[in-house]
Write a structure and sequence with these properties.
The complex is a heterodimer of chains A (112) and B (112). Chain A is an all-beta fold. Chain A contains no helices and 11 strands. In chain A, the strands form 2 sheets. In chain A, strands 2, 4, 5, 9, 10 and 11 form a 6-stranded mixed β-sheet that branches. A 5-stranded antiparallel β-sheet of chain A has the order 1-3-8-7-6, with no helix packed on it. The radius of gyration of chain A is 13 Å and the shape is globular. By secondary structure, chain B is mostly beta strands. Chain B contains no helices and 11 strands. Helices cover 0% and strands 51% of the residues of chain B. The chains are: A mainly beta (112), B mainly beta (112). Chains A and B meet through strand 4, strand 5 and strand 10 of A and strand 5 and strand 10 of B.
């Protein structure tokens, strides 16, 4: 079945440093979404990427969808304590059903 | 803005008991998804409903069943509970023709 892996699993950064998480799918995706889950909270939708090579920005967050539509990345510039949480990518296969397969997640902690 | 409502928020059951989790999607959202999230794990897709019909099925055990009612709320019925069923259960909903999923606060199920 479809597998979506993320690296790293954990990332500890000093406040103000940059952070990047990478997402890789075993199958080609029709689209990819990113979610953020704060400790003790629920996943919150951040963005959806659909086109090959697409890049979207939200303030300090930059999302990229790979040319082959099998990988994606999320980059945060100048992290803040409010960025703490687990970032999940979630992909929908290009063929077959509509279900969303979540990545393994990257847990970001910030050292003030 | 209205959010997805889940009840109960916490539930403690004994092995072999049954449990029913309820989900009330955001108004005018026509699709409901159920996920199971173990400690430190990514959300695992269980099942989804579109316009009251099952639209997709994931790793949902045969002991579980779910349905979506005429008012679009959904219920996840879990029987013969096992210790391994202890997890956070999230419901999410999406509006017509959109893949963005809005998650509820989750139900924490503990099986003892």
């Amino acid at each position: 079945g479809q597998q979506v892996m993320q690296i790293p699993q954990y990332q500890h950064v000093q406040e103000g440093e940059d952070f990047t998480t990478y997402c890789n799918s075993s199958t080609t995706l029709s689209n990819i979404q990113w979610y953020k889950q704060r400790p003790g909270g629920h996943p919150v939708f951040l963005i959806q990427l659909v086109k090959s090579g697409e890049v979207k920005k939200q303030k300090r967050l930059t999302f990229q969808f790979g040319e082959a539509k099998k990988n994606s990345s999320l980059h945060i510039t100048a992290t803040q304590t409010t960025d703490v949480g687990t970032y999940f990518c979630a992909g929908r296969a290009i063929f077959g059903n509509e279900k969303l397969t979540f990545g393994t997640g990257t847990r970001l902690t910030i050292i003030p | 803005a209205a959010g997805v409502i889940q009840s109960p928020r916490h539930l403690i059951k004994e092995k072999r008991e049954t449990a029913t989790l309820k989900c009330y999607p955001i108004p005018r959202h026509d699709t409901v998804y159920w996920y199971q999230q173990g400690p430190g794990q990514d959300p695992q897709f269980l099942i989804s409903f579109y316009e009251k019909m099952q639209s997709d099925k994931g790793s949902i055990p045969d002991r579980f069943s779910a349905q979506q009612f005429s008012d679009y709320h959904s219920e996840l019925n879990m029987s013969s509970l096992e210790l391994g069923d202890s997890a956070l259960y999230f419901c999410a909903s999406s509006r017509p023709s959109s893949h963005e999923q809005y998650f509820g606060p989750g139900t924490r199920l503990t099986v003892t």
